[in-house]
């Protein structure tokens, strides 16, 4: 009989969002008339920008004649999309990123997990706590950790605590690590990292030959030009960082699927014989073997993000969600809640009232107001006592949700 990958048996419960979905489904079944407002998973609600739809419609037409038909594309993505990314996202911020260091993919979630294919199993790996659970679970699946302890933390994985006391930016460790996952603007806390803070990480990484896995999926929500939007704004980052980017949140591609990962050619890691190997070459080998690229139609849609109309329409989308976040922050603060994030990010991170646990607050909110959020403890131990509300929603729902909290929850 075939054997399974037993690392999967180490995983705790379900992946966070399906688990929330399960609880909400049970609640709906018991309360079929409840008008549930979902502010849990960060899934966009607003239509795709018109520029993207027009470009994809044209691309479908292209597929209808032999002359303009596209079969397999380049596994790394079409050059016309990669060139635009450099021109619009990196050159203006003085980042030295070449188009052939960009690998177009179907998602940052997939890439942050898949990247482990090219790394060994005996690295010292750190995640922040709280953390986007994918970084943890994919390392467990890969066999990079031991079993979970009774608090749900995996042996062999380092947890860098992000708390209110350190402004949700963990202290730089005083011991060496091989791989560190960073996400800014942060999911789940919605907080951002200053250039000074990121420079400390890059300096640390250069000293210890650490690879920084920098998830910048929410970078377009940064409105303050002084806050870095890319790790490559920090000198030396080309030698120590991989950056993950996505069209999901800025252009509403959660269901359309297009993202990209940057693996600089300067970045190396060692083989067991001490030889330094370029990660760009390994990732290219991995992608060309296991991935056939994102569809031509979708890449044309992503390219349109960089057209004049696309830039304006995506900016409107981002502003729309940021206004939602502002409304959530202000409404909660006026009710006496302590709120964090939500200024340069689509997530608001609030302290649960009356020292409720995150899951108790989840149940209270669902039962009293029919609102679904994400319990902070689902993101790690330091998330206990916190709760995440996503600003990805219609304005009507955000306003209704905040009115319900004001009228039905007294803290
Ligand atoms: C979230 O809610 O944390 C995000 O939707 C996760 C994701 O983008 O995969």
What features would you describe in this structure?
It is a single chain. With 411 residues, this protein is of the alpha/beta class. The chain folds into two domains: 141 residues, Alpha-Beta Complex (Aspartate Aminotransferase, domain 1), CATH 3.90.1150.10; 256 residues, Type I PLP-dependent aspartate aminotransferase-like (Major domain) (Aspartate Aminotransferase, domain 2). Helices cover 35% and strands 14% of the residues. The strands form four sheets. The chain has a seven-stranded mixed sheet with strand order 2-8-7-6-5-3-4, with helices on both faces. A four-stranded antiparallel sheet has the order 11-12-15-14. Strands 1-13 form a two-stranded parallel ribbon. The model has no long low-confidence stretch (mean pLDDT 96). The site of D-malate has 6 residues, from loops.
């Amino acid at each position: 009989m075939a054997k399974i990958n037993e690392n999967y048996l180490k995983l705790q419960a379900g992946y966070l969002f399906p688990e929330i979905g399960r609880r909400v489904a049970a609640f709906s079944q018991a309360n079929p008339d409840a008008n549930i407002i979902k502010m849990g998973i960060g899934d966009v609600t607003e239509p795709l920008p018109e520029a993207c739809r027009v470009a994809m419609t044209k691309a479908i037409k292209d597929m209808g004649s032999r002359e303009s038909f596209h079969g397999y594309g380049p596994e790394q993505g079409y050059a016309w999309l990669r060139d635009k990314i450099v021109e619009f996202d990196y050159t203006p911020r003085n980042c030295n990123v070449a188009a052939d260091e960009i690998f177009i993919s179907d998602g940052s979630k997939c890439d942050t997990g898949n990247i482990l294919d090219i790394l060994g199993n005996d690295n010292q790996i750190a995640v922040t706590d709280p953390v986007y659970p994918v970084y943890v679970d994919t390392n467990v699946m890969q066999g990079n950790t031991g079993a979970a302890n009774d608090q749900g933390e995996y042996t062999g994985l380092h947890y860098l605590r992000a708390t209110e006391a350190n402004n949700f930016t963990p202290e730089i460790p005083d011991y060496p690590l091989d791989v560190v996952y960073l996400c800014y603007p942060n999911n789940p806390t919605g907080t951002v990292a200053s250039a000074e803070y990121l420079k400390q990480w890059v300096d640390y990484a250069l000293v210890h030959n650490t690879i920084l896995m920098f998830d910048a999926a929410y970078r377009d929500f940064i409105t303050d030009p002084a806050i870095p939007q890319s790790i490559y704004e920090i000198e030396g980052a080309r030698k120590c960082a991989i950056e993950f980017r996505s069209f999901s949140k800025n252009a509403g591609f959660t269901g359309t699927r297009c993202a990209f990962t940057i693996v600089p050619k300067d970045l190396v890691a060692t083989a067991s014989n001490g030889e330094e190997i370029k990660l760009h070459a390994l990732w290219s080998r991995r992608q060309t073997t296991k991935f056939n690229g994102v569809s031509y139609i979708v890449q044309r849609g992503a390219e349109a993000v960089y057209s004049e109309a696309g830039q304006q329409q995506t900016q409107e989308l981002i502003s729309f969600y940021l206004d939602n976040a502002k409304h959530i922050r202000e409404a909660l603060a006026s009710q006496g809640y302590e709120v964090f994030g939500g200024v340069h990010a689509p997530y608001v991170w609030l302290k649960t009232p009356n020292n409720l646990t995150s899951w108790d607050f989840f149940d209270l909110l669902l039962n009293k107001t029919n609102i679904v959020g994400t319990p902070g403890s689902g993101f790690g131990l330091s998330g206990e006592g916190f709760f995440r509300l996503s600003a990805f929603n219609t304005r009507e729902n955000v306003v209704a949700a905040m009115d319900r909290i004001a009228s039905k929850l007294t803290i």
